[in-house]
Amino acid sequence: MSAPQAYLDALPLPAVLIRPDERIAGVNAPATALLGAGLTGGHFINALRQPGLLDAIEGCLAQRSPREADYLTSDGDQDTTYFVTVRPVPLANGDIGALACFQDVTHLEQSDRMRRDFVANVSHELRTPLTAIMGFIETLKGPALNDAPARMRFLDIMEREASRMNRLVGDLLSLSRVEQEERVRPTGRLDPADLIRSTLHGLDQLAQEAGVTIRTELPDQGFEIMGDADQLRQVLTNLIENAIKYSGSGTQVTVRLSAPEYRPRLRCEGIRIEVEDTGPGIDPLHVPRLTERFYRVDSHRSREKGGTGLGLAIVKHIVSRHRGRLNIESALGKGSLFRVTLPVK
Ligand code: ADP
């Protein structure tokens, strides 16, 4: 094996070495997997058909200076983006060749795109209530200055819009806190039945105002699990609030707790909390996406109910911090069932 080939083989990334006569001097195994076999000795243009990369290699060979380029591939349903560095390197005969190394940056690009989408979504969500508030301030300073009933009405709307912004900021902060702690296992201990009872106590009025009856099915015997009480209270609140909000008057919400037993999906002993409603249900088409940030089945209805679109994203992160599982079963006209399975310790 020649010395340059040994260097190529020592690299974990796909790498191609090109001679100054523009022929390929060698490739390593990852590059063969990426570009195909039988490239050594051939012209580099036949192996690397993308103009950006071809320019970078030509430039590197001609100027003996470092270049960079993107290289895109697709294997049917998945696109992969490589960032390719092209560097001048001395060859065995004293010539200067070009070494192209391919770095897979697909995940970096994806997380960059997610971050951009998130910022755009947050800005949009904040701008809507802010625009309303600014509009009403204008009206209050001008046409409605001396109109007391209109003033009260506008102030009520402004209060509602300001609370929406407040809820959104609160949910964003919760989400970022939960994300920060996601890899830290909770160390507190709590009785889930107590937690359910106290959470429901706080939601009594909301249920009454919405005309929703709440039932509980709790085991007779108390038991404790390992968990973060504040966060699990938030899980319960978000699920029960959603069930109340979206089900409507005359419906029933059942909160069910099952005692610890072996849970095959967790591969350990776990408990199960279910929040079931007799509301309108959700088209199964939407179910897999409900835990995405800002995903709503019906944006208008969610906003009208004061939703931020972040509730289930927060639930998912908290459950995953507890190494639990979240399942959603629903069908249109059949109500919805949100099931959280949590390990006992
Ligand atoms: P939101 O703040 O909009 O309620 P969530 O993340 O809590 O955001 O929920 C996402 C979407 O899931 C809601 O907008 C709603 O369309 C749907 N959803 C959640 N829970 C229920 C439920 N119990 N019944 C019907 N639809 C629900």
Could you outline the blueprint of secondary structure elements for this entry?
Elements: H1 3-10, E1 15-18, E2 24-27, H2 29-35, H3 44-47, H4 51-63, E3 67-74, E4 79-90, E5 96-104, H5 106-141, H6 148-180, E6 189-190, H7 192-210, E7 213-217, E8 225-226, H8 229-247, E9 252-263, E10 268-277, H9 299-304, H10 311-321, E11 325-330, E12 336-343
Parallel strand pairs: 7-9
Antiparallel strand pairs: 1-2, 1-5, 3-4, 4-5, 6-8, 9-10, 10-12, 11-12
Helix pairs in contact: 5-6, 6-10, 7-8, 8-10
This protein binds adenosine-5'-diphosphate.
Residues 238, 242-243, 246, 277, 279, 282, 290, 296-298, 302, 307-313, 336 line the site of adenosine-5'-diphosphate.
State which percent range the strand residues make up.
15-25%
Order of helices and strands: HEEHHHEEEHHEHEEHEEHHEE
Overall mean pLDDT stands at 94
Which structural category fits the helices and strands? alpha+beta
Identify the overall geometry: elongated
Low-confidence stretches: none
Q: Strands across the major sheet, in which order? A: 2-1-5-4-3
**Tally of alpha and pi helices:** 10
Helix content: 40-55%
- The CATH architecture name of the largest domain reads 2-Layer Sandwich
Sketch the major β-sheet.
Answer: 5 strands, antiparallel
Distance between the termini: 56 Å
Query: What small molecules does this complex bind?
Result: adenosine-5'-diphosphate
- The total domain count is 3
Number of extended strands: 12
Under CATH, the topology of the largest domain can be stated as Heat Shock Protein 90
Query: What do we call the CATH homologous superfamily of the largest domain?
Result: Histidine kinase-like ATPase, C-terminal domain
